[in-house]
Structure formats: C-alpha cells, structure tokens
C-alpha cells in the first residue's frame, strides 16, 4: 500500500535525525522549566525552599501550600485565601466573554450580510478600538462607571471588558462571515426566515471555529487582565490577578514562596485549560477567518 | 395582463443605470429564459423579481399584484441558486422543509410535502444526509426540491447548471424540461449558455448591456435575430456575418460577395421584404447560419431558393456528426456545416449550396436586421 512519504528533499541519516530530536527535546524541556519549577516548589514545605535548591525535587511532598493559597492565605488584610477572588474572576470573565462574543457575532453578521450606507466606516471605527491603549481608557471609564454607580464592582468590570472586547470580536466575526456565502442568506430570506432566525438557524451553527477563537481570545485577555482589575475593582470585588499580587505582596510574616507558587498556578490554570480544550479550534478558526476573508 | 409582468423596470446604482426599461410579460406556464453574457443585467433582473434587489422605477407584478417593496418570502416565489445555497448544518429533509417551517406549516403537512417532493425527484434515500455528503447532481436535485415543496407561483433559476460537469449538465437540462412539462409551472431561468436557452425555453429574452435585445420564441430568435448581437450570440458555431453589396439584376435583388480568389459571387434573394429596396446599391451585412451552407446534395429539400457558388476551401474540421468547412468570403472567415461524409478537401475549390430562405440582412451602421 502506498503511504505518503515523510522523506524530505535532504536525505537524513539516523544520527542526524537523533540529533534533531535531541535538540527539540532540550528546547521543549527548556520552555517547560519555569512551570516545572513552580509546580515542584508549590509541593515543598517552605523550609526546603529557603534552605536549599529551588530546582531539586521535594524531599517531603505536601499539598499544604495549595490548601493555604486556596482558602487561608492572607490576601491584603483578610485571611481568605484566593478562593473568593477566583470566583470573582469567573463571575467577571464568563459573562464578559459571552456578551462580547454574542455582540461581535451580531456585528459581523450585520456588517457582512446587511450592508448599509457607512458600514465600512463603522467597521473601521470598531477596528480602531482594537488599537486604543488601555491607559487612555482608564479615566473616562472611571467616570462612566461612577455615573452608572457600578464603580468598584464585578458588574462594572464586566462592562469594561465587554465594551473593550467588542472591537476584537467584531473583527473576527466580520472576517469569518465575509467568506460565508451570501446566497445562503438570500435563500433563507426567500424561505421566510427573519433577521434573527437567519442568524440563529443559519449563521451560528456554521460559526464553531470562530466562536472558539473569540472565546479563547477574550477569556485569556479578560482573565489575565490586571490593569482594569486593579483600577476599577478594589477590595472584595478584585479579580484573581489582583488578588495574586496582594498575596505575594502581603507584608506581614514570612514570605511563603511555596504558597505564592501554588497561587500563581491557580491563577494560570483556567487559561491553560481553555487552550488545551479548545486550542486546535483556535488555529483552525484563525486560518478560516483571515486567509479566506 | 400576463401572469408575471415586468413593466418598464429600470435599475440604477447611484447615477449608473444598469437595466434600461425592461418590459416583459410572462404567461402562466411559460418557461422564460434570460440569456446574455456576463454583466448584461440578467441576474439583476432575476433578483429584482425575487425581491432581493430593489426596483428603481417601473413595476413588477405577479398575478396582478404589485410586488415592489414586498418581502421575498411574501411573493410566493422560489429560487434555485447557482451554488445551490443548501444550509450546510441541516439535513436534506430539513433543508427542504425549512421554508414551510418558517411559514408556520404544521409538522405533519411538512413531512407529507417533503415525501411527495422527495419521491418526485428520487431523493428519498438522501433525506437524512447533510449537503456536504452529496454529489453535485444530488445537491442540484435537493435545491430544486426545496423550491418545489413551496408550490410557488413562479420558479426562479439562477444559472443552476453552471456548476455541473458537461455530461451531468445535459442530463439535468432534460430533467428540468421534463419537470416543467409535468408540472406546468411558470419559470424564469437565467443562463449565459445559449444552448440551454434554446432547448429549455418557450420564450427567450436575449440581454446585452442592460437592454433586452430581443424577446421571442427560440425559433424567432434563431431564424430572425433582431440585430447583429443576437445573431452572433445565439447559435454555435456563430452565424456568418459577411459584408455584401445589394444590387438589382434581371429584376431581382442580389447580395454580391467576393470569393477567395477575388471572383464575384452574386446570391439571388427571393421574396425580398419591401425594406430591402431602400438598401439597393448600398453596403449591408449578410447573415447566414453555418447549416444553411452545404454541399449541393446535402441542401434542405424543402428550401425554395438554393443558390450555388464555387469557392476555395481553407480548412475542414470533421466533428463526427458534421464536418465544418471554413472558407474566405468578402475577406471574412465563413463556416459551412456539411454532412460528415461530404467530399471536401482543404486547398481545393468546392461547389457550395446556400439556402437563401434563411439568409438575413443587417444595416452596417445601426446593426439592426433589415425588414
């Protein structure tokens, strides 16, 4: 049976091949090293870190730092652990991601299939919002949150991230839908489907890859955001990133590096998980959106 | 008043008028084909009938009801698109019944209608498949099923066969014709393929440059083209258009051409329309279809006026059923369509027979047919 050959134009001997793989393996290990060190040190008692080698495996394995970081560590002045802030981040990120994805999808749908006078200008302005630096937004946004009386709360943060994300999600969906056959929309119109029925029954079921892109992009950005979180949600409403900073910077007592490492992994885990679960759709969706669009 | 009336309709994009005062009246059960090269406005006109594009001025009426501004779904039309436009996320069955569902038809009726249509088009085994799992011909059938199930007043076809390979295209062409004969529905069909237009239609509108050049039955279009564009667009190989001089000899008009060796060839015209008289001694274009030029034995026995002439043969192209013979007449290539076994050889003179019943004359300036 004929099998596609994996030979390259350059003939490679076994030894060269072995070197290539060795090289690749070394690089992979090198990139994994920081995470490895975090993981190893989060499973050690504090004495092993302060008294010895950071790279060595624990002599005495313990999950105590994880428990402490999660529920009892000092965050600012309260010994609450990271748990309430982890929940804050979820409460902020999930609605913001869903809202911005839905609005981006609707924008993309309208901008490609229901063209109107000036639509390119509107798209240009939405696109421009992707390039506005965070810092410029801070003061006007603080003012608006104040007027809306949602300053310092999770709903306030949701709004900030939702509004800031629309530009990106619109860009993704518009490019994706530009390659979506307009004849399908016309056929649905003749079949009697309305604006939202076409969106819901025809467009969305074919939008899997780009929804994944929008979801991953938005979730990663919103979860990892520090500036907006630190500026607009103080105290109990702070997201995970701000809480992690507070954990590490707590000035009372000894610095519990093992607890810090555990907390940092907790803060990074959701984005890591999202990439592992939906990562392949990310690449596929990006290709579909950009190359064909 | 027809069944579908296109009444003085124009279409402009900004200041540019792309469709100029189109006036077509379609009777119930007619098969109207809009044919023309790319950019002639035929698809625009179809989309205007469907309601997918606005009407700048004039009226479109279906069953005497003015359709300007009426939503596509409320015109009781169905459309088959060039790309078929099947919803990729739905099964064949769901594709067919989507329109009924949107119009609020109850589930039992939808299923019944779907079964009937599936039976008619022989796509019953495909009903649970997705469009991605179908071949081109099957998709074409499903697209037609989706149109048929609605039981519309008018069917609109937008180049439905252009994505199929040559053999399948011929099969589906016959299929569409059969379907039309069986159901007797009113159809407006857009194509750029003149053979599709000739074979399918009961009437043809030849369009070019935003104008309807000629509207008529396939025979009228073929035998009496209104102008040079229609004459050369319809028919393959195209009609021969030869510069000639119209002179009177022995009381009859003759079209005088120049042969390959510079010899004069005068072809007598009988039963000349009165309009020919005003072109006496003037230059005209003589239009002759390739099949009207044959060898003397192969000439049409029913023709009343067959004229012979001798001319040099440039090229012969045996095509199996026919042999195409190219010669030079009045400085132009002129193609004759012979029987396959006609004894013609390139480089030698040959005696041709022209069926002058079928010849038409065109004014060289206006390019309109004379008479």
Please summarize what this structure is.
With 293 residues, chain A is mainly alpha-helical. Chain A has 13 helices and no strands.
Structure, explained:
The complex is a heterodimer of chains A (293) and B (371). Helix content of chain A is 72%, strand content 0%. Chain A is mostly helical and 293 residues long. Chain A has two domains: 14-65, no CATH class; 83-291, MetI-like fold (Orthogonal Bundle), CATH 1.10.3720.10. The model of chain A is unreliable at 289-293 (pLDDT under 50). Chain B has two domains: 4-233, P-loop containing nucleotide triphosphate hydrolases (Rossmann fold, 3-Layer(aba) Sandwich); 240-362, Nucleic acid-binding proteins (OB fold (Dihydrolipoamide Acetyltransferase, E2P), Beta Barrel), CATH 2.40.50.140. In chain B, the strands form four sheets. Chain B has a six-stranded mixed beta sheet, sandwiched between helices. Chain B has a five-stranded antiparallel beta sheet with strand order 13-12-11-14-20. In chain B, a hairpin with a 3-residue loop joins β16 (306-318) and β17. The longest helix of chain B has 18 residues, at 166-183. The mean pLDDT of chain B is 91. The chains are: A mainly alpha (293), B alpha+beta (371). At the A-B interface, α8 and α9 of A face β6 and α2 of B.
Q: What's the SSE blueprint?
A:
The complex is a heterodimer of chains A (293) and B (371).
Chain A: H1 14-42, H2 46-51, H3 64-72, H4 83-113, H5 119-129, H6 134-147, H7 154-178, H8 182-191, H9 195-203, H10 208-224, H11 227-232, H12 240-249, H13 257-291
Helix pairs in contact in A: 1-13, 3-13, 4-7, 4-10, 5-7, 7-10, 7-13, 10-13, 12-13
Chain B: E1 4-13, E2 16-26, E3 31-35, H1 42-50, E4 57-62, E5 65-66, E6 77-80, H2 92-102, H3 107-121, H4 136-148, E7 154-158, H5 166-183, E8 186-191, H6 194-200, E9 203-208, E10 211-216, H7 218-223, H8 228-233, E11 240-249, E12 252-258, E13 264-269, E14 283-288, E15 293-294, E16 306-318, E17 322-329, E18 332-339, E19 349-355, E20 360-362
Parallel strand pairs in B: 3-8, 3-9, 6-7, 7-8
Antiparallel strand pairs in B: 1-2, 1-4, 4-5, 9-10, 11-12, 11-14, 12-13, 14-20, 15-19, 16-17, 16-19, 17-18
Helix pairs in contact in B: 2-3, 2-4, 3-4
